[in-house]
């Protein structure tokens, strides 16, 4: 490829230590692993996992538009990119509250984090610091 300078996004995916890149791709099985997650989100998750006893399980990264239509009523789901943009959302499953706390303690220092619960699966959106203040995304916000 004749690359020089900073690593390309493709190379950055290969640097992940705690997650397989494919874990963030669409799981519908029809779209050949559509992955629109911004690599910086994966890198941030990896950096956080380094400080945890064990990494969270990635339940959902991206959905391709077809899969999103079948699984989510919201056409603007943050897991589904519009117009070739990147996504910043992952659903993570934690074994227990201690593991979730370990994660969030680190996450809020790295990124602006939007959190929706409840339960052991948390919807996390990690945006560049300037994008938004950390906040909880309540069910009400969706209606
Ligand atoms: Zn798909």
Give an overview of the whole structure.
The chain is α+β, with helices and mostly antiparallel strands. It has a single domain, classed as 2-Layer Sandwich (Threonyl-tRNA Synthetase, Chain A, domain 2), CATH 3.30.980. Helix content is 27%, strand content 16%. A hairpin with a 4-residue loop joins strand 3 and strand 4. The structure holds zinc ion.
Identify the notable features of this structure and list them briefly.
143 residues; alpha+beta; Threonyl-tRNA Synthetase, Chain A, domain 2; 4 helices; 5 strands; globular; disordered C terminus; binds zinc ion
Give a topology summary.
Elements: H1 9-13, H2 39-50, E1 57-60, H3 65-71, E2 89-93, H4 97-110, E3 112-116, E4 121-127, E5 135-136
Parallel strand pairs: 3-5
Antiparallel strand pairs: 1-2, 2-4, 3-4
Helix pairs in contact: 2-4
The structure holds zinc ion.
The site of zinc ion has 8 residues, from helix 3.
At a glance:
By secondary structure, the protein is α+β, with helices and mostly antiparallel strands. The chain is built from four helices and five strands; from the N terminus they run H-H-E-H-E-H-E-E-E.
